[in-house]
Amino acid sequence: MAPQNLATQLTALVVDDDIINRKIHQRLLESVGVQNQGVKNGKEAVDIHCRGQRFDLILMDMDMPIMNGIEATKELRSMGIRSMIVGVSSRCTEAEILKFMEAGLNDYHEKPLNTAKLSSILDNINPNFTSD
Amino acid sequence: MEIHVFMGLLTLGPIVWKVLGKDILSFAFTVGFLDDQFNQLQKLQDESSPYFVMEVVTMFFGDSEKLLNSIALALEQKPVDFKSVDSHVHQFKGSSASVGAARVKDVCTNFRNICEAQDLEGCMRCLQQLQQEYFLLKNNLQYSFRLQQEIQAAGGSISSME
To answer: Do B63 and A115 touch (CB under 8 A)?
Structure first.
């Protein structure tokens, strides 16, 4: 997947309290040309939207202090945010995933993300993203 | 058996590794210390982010040692708060999965099951195993980084992992 010089470049927000995961996911996005920012909990994700910023993609961790991924997703949806929100977590029981999806996710992937998972996510936002 | 062979080889030092033509990282993959996620991290390293793997792994080392201390402290409490132990182990499992530390991750999975059973002796054994696996991996990776730096300093290049 080569970086794209798109006139309409995709933007992403990585929401994760773990600094290692944030670094990896941000570098993954950067490697495919997606401009991105990182925040460390759900409240910061909500606040950044309250300040008027918008993103094509939000990668949302589930377990975070102050405001977790489920609460943040519900809050963003109630604010009218229509961005693609993808849950990314190491939780894997069906019940936990279902609860997260019901909060308003478009998709869910188990951590860690890799280039293949990211490709499928970006293709859902822009089907031309990974095509030649 | 493979762990003892590996520990013996580690004591020979990086120069002998060069002479033997061994790649420490290849060995780490072969014996399951590392999985494909580590390959994914290596693919993210390029001229724009030339120290990416080392930066991530260094963060992992810092995080891991804090978590190991937290787990040890939690297991010393009377009574033991198994939820707190589980929370630290869950975090350790997550970060080890993120860097491709496969054996550390597997020990964490087992540790969480033992925690759920509230088996204190089992938890102490798991902690010991976790410390052993973590420090083996740390030594492995630190040797590998040092060897790579020596090769690059000598004007060589690092072959990519298959």
So the answer is: no
